[in-house]
Amino acid sequence: MMQRIAKVSPRFRARMAAVLYLFSVLTATFTELFLRGKLNVAGGLVAVSSMAAVTLILYAIFRPVNRRLALLAAFFNFEAEGEAAERMQQIARAARAHTESNLYAISPEKSHVSKEFAAGDPEFWTPKPPAPTRVAAKKSGKNEPTK
User: Mind listing the pLDDT tens digit for each residue in 6-30?
Assistant: First the structure.
């Protein structure tokens, strides 16, 4: 199995790295623009993991040229990916902290609907006025002291 992997041409590896890099960029763009909340974090993790694969493929391509330089480049790329993963965790925490639910009530007195629409639920859209309440008259004009 190892001999078969070693026979893969550098051109094929470079193309695979380019495809994975493009996939990472498109995934990150799609999640930032269209997904919110937990799906945004999942898309970010997919983008980070594909960038890790790109880093490993580029290391395999450049290792025959200069092993130390390829290792240094891979180290810096993994460090940047770690920072990106930490940023994704911060975004996830912020998304959970700022989640809100809004409950709205419709007031028929403040709504202007057509007669045809109001006929669908006449009890709600044409409420009866509340019964007048009588205020009890005070028996004496003086306030009694409290004990």
Answer: 678 888 989 998 998 898 888 878 8
- Residue 90 is part of which domain span? 2-97
Q: Is this model's pTM higher than 0.90 or not?
A: no
Closest alpha carbon to 51 in 6, 86, 19, 29? 19
Evaluate whether residue 10 is within a structural domain.
Answer: yes
Q: Note whether residue 88 is domain-resident.
A: yes
Q: Which residue has the tokens 């403040």?
A: 110
- The CA distance from 141 to 30, in Å, is 75
Alpha helices (H) in the chain, listed in sequence order: 2-6, 10-34, 38-62, 67-97, 115-118, 122-125
Domain count, the chain: 1
